[in-house]
């Protein structure tokens, strides 16, 4: 898989996540606590104060990974992509811990979503980010 496709793949995941947050901003959940527990395994308010920064962060990261995968953006974009990769890797590692049942109840929606969706997506995306960074460095792409 080439670097541009990897960047587009990761950006697509980030944009889908940003769109989900935008949806929750525009159309709040009927039970915000249940949504929070299913998505985060903790009670976090789904308010504009929380959602708007997340939407901005996810969108910025999507733009940065696309830029870096195409040899653009300079060191600021590369720094954002490095932070993105680190964050995804940490979330993936925590997901593996939670998948073993530590820190979460195995009967909850969060446990199943973490096991089947969140952790695999984070680990695959982290690997893709790592490949983008390695390939742009190795090929001497001007970034």
Blueprint (SSEs and pairs):
Elements (H helix, E strand, L loop, with lengths): L2 H24 L5 H9 L7 H22 L4 H26 L9 H30 L5
Helix pairs in contact: 1-3, 1-5, 2-5, 3-4, 4-5
Order of helices and strands: HHHHH
Question: What Rg is obtained from the alpha carbons, in whole angstroms?
Answer: 16 Å
Report the β-strand fraction as a percent range.
under 5%
Form type: globular
Helical fraction equals over 70%
Number of strands: 0
Number of helices: 5
User: Averaging pLDDT over every residue, what do you get?
Assistant: 93
What is the chains' assembly state?
Answer: single chain
- Give the terminus-to-terminus CA distance: 20 Å
Question: What are the low-pLDDT stretches, counting only 5+ consecutive residues below 50?
Answer: none
Largest sheet: none
Given the helix and strand composition, which structural class is it? mainly alpha
């Amino acid at each position: 898989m080439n670097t541009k496709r990897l960047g587009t793949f990761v950006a697509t995941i980030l944009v889908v996540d940003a769109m989900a947050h935008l949806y929750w901003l525009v159309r709040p959940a009927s039970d915000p606590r249940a949504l929070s527990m299913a998505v985060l395994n903790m009670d976090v308010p789904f308010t504009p104060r929380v959602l708007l920064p997340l939407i901005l962060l996810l969108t910025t990261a999507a733009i940065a990974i696309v830029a870096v995968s195409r040899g653009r953006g300079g060191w600021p974009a590369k720094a954002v992509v490095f932070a993105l990769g680190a964050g995804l890797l940490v979330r993936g590692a925590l997901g593996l811990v939670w998948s073993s049942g530590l820190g979460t109840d195995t009967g909850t929606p969060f446990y199943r979503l973490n096991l089947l969706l969140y952790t695999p997506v984070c680990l695959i995306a982290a690997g893709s980010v790592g490949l983008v960074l390695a390939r742009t460095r190795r090929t001497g792409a001007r970034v």
